[in-house]
Amino acid sequence: MAKSTITYVCTDCGGETLRWAGQCPHCQAWNTLQEFHVRKASRDSKARPLQPARAVPLSEISAEDAPRTRLAWGELNRVLGGGIVPGSLALIAGEPGVGKSTLLMHAAAQVAASGTVLYVSGEESGQQVRMRAQRLSAIAPSILLLAENDLDVICEAIRGELPRLAIIDSIQTVTDPGLEGSAGSVTQVRESAARLMRLAKEIGVPIFLVGHVTKDGSIAGPRVLEHIVDTVLYLEGDRRQELRILRATKNRFGSAEEIGVFAMGEAGLEEVTDPSAAILATSAQAAPGTAIVAVLEGTRPLLVEVQSLVNKTHNTVVRRIANGFDVNRLHMIVAVLEKRLERSYGTSDIFVSVAGGIRITEPAADLGLALSIVSNENNRPMPDGLLVVGELGLSGEVRRVGHLERRLQEAARHGLTRALIPAGSKAGRPSGLEVVEVRTVAEAVSAAFPTQIRSGAFIKEAGISVS
Ligand code: TYD
Ligand code: MG
């Protein structure tokens, strides 16, 4: 066994520290530091450089992209930055049960059309993997299965087969016999991934690693691996719902902002090439408290439905619960509504949720969420076919957002007829979409609800008499 020294690695943020402590000095999480045995490099270590070091003039290095293996699904290609790069190491992370193995089996079937795929399963038996593949219609003679945990055996198999793609499901079940620690420990996970990275680069075989995201301290989370791998893709989604989003958070070979959208069904996943349509199809028509907003994911606009429920409560402490939306942002929006519209939510619970399991991270949805709260509170639906775009400032002003034109085009394409947008936006106006510019949240309320909502400063501000 190789000699090692010990450092401590945080399973939450991947930060390293020399001394053990109850709290991670980098991310301040508690009880997340785990022993990490650093292997001392020896002469015969597997870590020796692949080729003797030689500096070359920058101008002599080829600028051409390595030929990528393209998959049948455009949604997958998009997140990968245009296909699978030979010799790359990608981490596909997500909660247990979200669909990682399913997604990778689909990917295997698509690559198998042009070469062998080695699927290494450390979690399931060959029979279980076959049953899933059968359900996905992904059985091909060129998909080879290896049910194995031993990293030495796995590396040998990859070297021997030189597949078009190797999949390791999952990195937490792999153990390097030359290392201390059990499967899933920080030492094992990090060192195994580093060894697979060297192998991938050496023989040019792309490797996909599955990584489970879990809060359990005994298993090293994917965070520990993010620095090592080339690409990190998170598979997100509510297990009880259909939509799954594959989000790139790091990509050495493409944009790290792209998402791919899929739907889980009886026969596995399907790509969703028009996510706005899929999301709008499930939306409750004109119910009080729903609003349609346009968020940008990477280069791509998405129409998303946000919902609010404002409910009087007799409890002394009111609740603010946000699903798919930042709860602090919700607090801010509620405060702006209270101050600028002279409303009071001090005795109401407010729940907000984003349809389809989407997570909104953009302030461009602020105004839509604000209007959905007003709509539910007054039991007045928003008009059909209305898009609401705008960031909300603390004084109730509606701020401009980036790429407005793309958002409006997406709305027009999906048959929306009217859009409330921040005043002064210079975006082109797609035909078929009536655009109303609003300067404040008060103006937005009067524009969204054609007949008045009783009392409040916004009515005075908008110059409408109080009924
Ligand atoms: P899986 O890919 O095993 O998840 P992970 O590898 O991320 O742990 O898939 C998990 C869920 O997907 C499982 O609860 C059942 C569901 N599923 C379907 O709904 N349809 C299918 O065709 C398949 C294969 C799975
Ligand atoms: Mg799995």
Characterization of this structure:
The chain is an alpha/beta fold and 467 residues long. It has 3 domains: 4-39; 70-273, 3-Layer(aba) Sandwich (Rossmann fold); 278-462, Ribosomal Protein S5, domain 2 (2-Layer Sandwich), CATH 3.30.230. 25% of the residues lie in helices and 25% in strands. It is built from 11 helices and 21 strands. The protein has helices at residues 74-80, 100-112, 126-135, 151-161, 186-203, 275-281, 327-340, 366-377, 404-413, 441-448, 457-461; strands spanning 4-10, 16-17, 33-39, 89-94, 117-121, 143-147, 165-169, 207-212, 231-236, 243-251, 259-265, 268-271, 290-297, 300-312, 320-323, 348-354, 386-388, 391-392, 398-399, 418-422, 434-438. A 9-stranded mixed beta sheet has the order 6-5-7-8-4-9-10-11-12, sandwiched between helices. A 4-stranded mixed beta sheet has the order 13-14-16-15, sandwiched between helices. Strand 9 (231-236) and strand 10 (243-251) form a beta hairpin. Helix 7 (327-340) packs across helix 8 (366-377). The longest helix is centred in the middle third of the chain and has 18 residues, at 186-203. Mean pLDDT is 87; it is low at 455-467. Bound molecules: thymidine-5'-diphosphate and magnesium ion. Residues 100-101, 123, 169 line the site of magnesium ion.
Provide keyphrases for this structure.
globular; binds thymidine-5'-diphosphate; four-stranded mixed beta sheet; disordered C terminus; Rossmann fold; nine-stranded mixed beta sheet; binds magnesium ion; alpha/beta; Ribosomal Protein S5, domain 2; 467 residues; 3 domains
